[in-house]
């Protein structure tokens, strides 16, 4: 099948400036961690990408290790880019990362210049592109000087292999130091990618303030807590869900009666707002202006469209926020 993007693709999406940079990102971006690997159904993955682009999602997030097998999500996205989106490269923001285990030996993970540089070269080949828009250090490496890791990111930009750089999963203090180093190098840190959802609020302690002070954007990953903050698990564990898949990162043990009770109560608030729980969970993140984009995953176009509709209502009354807080704070 041939793909022609919708002419209306830019009518409904909201685009937010990423920190103090000139780059705008869609309020909802699509991540290819799950559902786009070699083990997944290629045509389904392809239809999700089409649906995303048709609805104004310009930003697709990858990493060297996404699959399984590792690397296959980049390969699949590369195929789709070539067959369907080749004429639209300048409308796309493609990101990739290096940090987790990718190949054998001492140079296949963490934050050395050797690993980051080699990994980006491999990613470009798999994706079939000359450059990525954002290249991330995927995790903070306590055993490599930050000067070296940030120097490797700066090197990627100077080589023309990345336009912007970002960091992911870095604690607040390391973020501040990394930002200072990058600014001195002349390649400011564009963006931080932390896990952030109603069920995981660690960024609220000091990371979001640090990002605000440093002028760095924030893209929240796993905003639906991998599917927990949706209607997916309200009536058991569906056979086609992430928690049922052997390679899924969501484990059945995480779906406890206590969590389910919280989810059911949150679901009732979502219903009273005329939203699905997924929509409310995304809106709840976007209410904070420090959050540039919410990075969702999806296993079907229906899920993605449901999530996109969150943009129709991202405001909350004080009473709703208080009620949500009291549910989330329950032991
Ligand atoms: N930087 C990092 O270290 C890091 C780590 C993790 C993720 N990420 C990034 O963040 C992206 C998103 O992560 P994630 O996939 O965990 O995000 P998520 O949005 O929290 O979870 C996505 C899953 O939730 C379910 N879902 C999505 N929309 C739904 C809807 N409207 N209704 C019902 N269920 C729905 C689907 O589960 P089923 O598959 O069960 O249908 C889907 O696979 C990744 O692809 C990746 O780009 C980054």
How would you write the strand order of the largest sheet? 3-4-5-6-7-8-9-10
Q: Mean of residue pLDDT?
A: 97
As a whole number of angstroms, the C-alpha radius of gyration is: 19 Å
* Order of SSEs: EEEHEHEHEHEHEHEHHEHH
Per-chain topology:
Elements: E1 15-17, E2 24-26, E3 28-31, H1 42-54, E4 59-61, H2 72-84, E5 93-98, H3 113-127, E6 132-137, H4 146-158, E7 162-168, H5 172-185, E8 189-193, H6 207-214, E9 217-221, H7 257-272, H8 277-286, E10 293-296, H9 301-308, H10 318-328
Parallel strand pairs: 3-4, 3-10, 4-5, 5-6, 6-7, 7-8, 8-9, 9-10
Antiparallel strand pairs: 1-2
Helix pairs in contact: 1-2, 3-4, 4-5, 5-6, 7-10
Bound molecules: NADP nicotinamide-adenine-dinucleotide phosphate (NAP).
Written description of the protein model:
- Helix 4 links the parallel strand 6 and strand 7.
- The chain has a single domain, classed as TIM Barrel (Alpha-Beta Barrel).
- Helix 3 packs parallel to helix 4.
- An 8-stranded parallel barrel has the order 3-4-5-6-7-8-9-10, surrounded by 6 helices. Strands 1-2 form a two-stranded antiparallel ribbon.
- It is built from 10 helices and 10 strands.
- The chain starts with 14 loop residues before the first strand and ends with a helix.
- The mean pLDDT is about 95.
- With about 325 residues, the chain is an alpha/beta fold.
- The protein is globular and about 50 Å long.
- Helix content is about 35%, strand content about 15%.
- The chain binds NADP nicotinamide-adenine-dinucleotide phosphate.
- NADP nicotinamide-adenine-dinucleotide phosphate binds next to strand 10 and helix 9.
């Amino acid at each position: 099948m041939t793909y022609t993007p919708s002419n209306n693709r830019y009518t409904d999406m909201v685009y937010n400036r990423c920190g103090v940079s000139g780059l705008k990102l869609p309020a909802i971006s699509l991540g290819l961690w799950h559902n786009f690997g070699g083990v997944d159904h290629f045509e389904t993955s392809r239809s999700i990408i089409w649906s995303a682009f048709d609805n104004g999602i310009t930003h697709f997030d990858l990493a060297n290790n996404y699959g399984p097998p590792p690397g296959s999500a980049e390969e699949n996205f590369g195929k789709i880019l070539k067959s369907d989106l080749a004429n639209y490269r300048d409308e796309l923001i493609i990101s990739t990362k290096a940090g987790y285990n990718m190949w054998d030996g001492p140079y296949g993970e963490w934050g050395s210049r050797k690993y980051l540089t080699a990994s980006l070269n491999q990613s470009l080949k798999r994706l079939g592109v000359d450059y990525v828009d954002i290249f991330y250090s995927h995790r903070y490496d306590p055993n490599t000087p930050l000067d070296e890791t940030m120097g490797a990111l700066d090197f990627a930009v100077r080589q023309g292999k990345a336009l912007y750089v970002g960091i992911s999963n870095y604690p607040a203090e390391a973020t501040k130091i990394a930002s200072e180093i990058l600014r001195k190098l002349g390649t400011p840190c564009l963006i931080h990618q932390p896990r952030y959802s109603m069920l995981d609020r660690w960024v609220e302690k000091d990371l979001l303030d640090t990002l605000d002070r440093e002028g760095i954007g924030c893209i929240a990953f796993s905003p639906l807590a991998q599917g927990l903050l949706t209607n997916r698990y309200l009536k058991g564990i569906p056979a086609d869900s992430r928690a049922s898949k052997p390679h899924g990162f969501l484990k059945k043990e995480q779906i406890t009666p206590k969590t389910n009770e919280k989810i059911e109560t949150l679901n009732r608030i979502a219903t009273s707002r005329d939203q699905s729980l997924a929509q409310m969970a995304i809106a709840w993140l976007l209410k904070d202006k420090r959050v540039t984009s919410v990075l969702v995953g999806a296993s079907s176009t229906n899920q993605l469209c449901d999530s996109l509709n969150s943009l129709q209502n991202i405001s909350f009354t004080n009473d709703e926020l208080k009620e949500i807080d009291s549910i989330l704070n329950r032991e």
